[in-house]
Give the backbone structure.
Amino acid sequence: MQIPIDVKVLKSALSIDDKAAQQIIDKTRGVRIDEDTPIVPKKPDNHTITVEAPTNLGDGLLVIDLIDEHGGTITIAYDLKEKKFRQQEDEDEEEEEE
């Protein structure tokens, strides 16, 4: 299953602007899915990263780490059941709920 990650996806999932999203795409050198071995992502153009995910994952969340040239990661989550990326929850909101 191919999952495209573009500026629109990153803006939505991370609540960032176009420029920050494009910088993440430009700097991404590897992708790790559910803590497996990092792979080199396909970049069919300068605005999209294509991730090849296993097809036998069920309906849960797929955790995708975008890894930059220094080993830094940005984590996003893909809901396999809904077939869309989840928006990251704000840490302040999580603390208030506890």
